[in-house]
Amino acid sequence: MPNRRRGEVALQLGSTRYTLCLTLGALAELEDAFGVQDLNALTERFGTGCLSSRDLLTLLGVALRGGQTLSDAEVASLPLHEGIEPVAAALADLLVMTFGGGEASPNPR
Question: pLDDT of 41-66, one tens digit each?
Fold first, then answer.
């Protein structure tokens, strides 16, 4: 069960429930992946709301490594039986929890 106080968010993909979390190391990995110099630039990058599927994949992989050990190839092959919306919603929730900017939605049951 995700701990919201630690910034964790649940994501159900297929029959597996994952825990997403952005650790300090994850944030550093995202700065490198998106070619930005600091957290402010990373916040601005995500604040545009314009993320490609490659951006979502990068963000999902980094967020999953905060709670599980999955390779980039394993993340890329996760099932999307419910479509992309649950992934995008969980990542949006995670970004709001990490960077602020509004009330995060409650954890899905």
Answer: 988 888 887 888 888 889 999 998 87
User: Which of 20, 46, 58 minimizes the C-alpha distance to 101?
Assistant: 46
CA 37 to CA 42: how far, in whole Å?
8
Q: At what angle do helices 24-34 and 53-65 cross, to 10 degrees?
A: 160
- Distance between CA atoms of residues 40 and 45, nearest Å: 9
SS3 95: helix
Which residue's entry shows tokens 């919603």? 89
Residue 90: count other Cβ atoms within 10 Å of its Cβ. Answer: 23
Strand extents, DSSP E, 1-109: 9-13, 16-20
User: Beta partners for 19?
Assistant: 10
Note if the pTM is more than 0.85. Answer: no
The dihedrals phi and psi of 10, each to the nearest 5 degrees, come to -85, 145
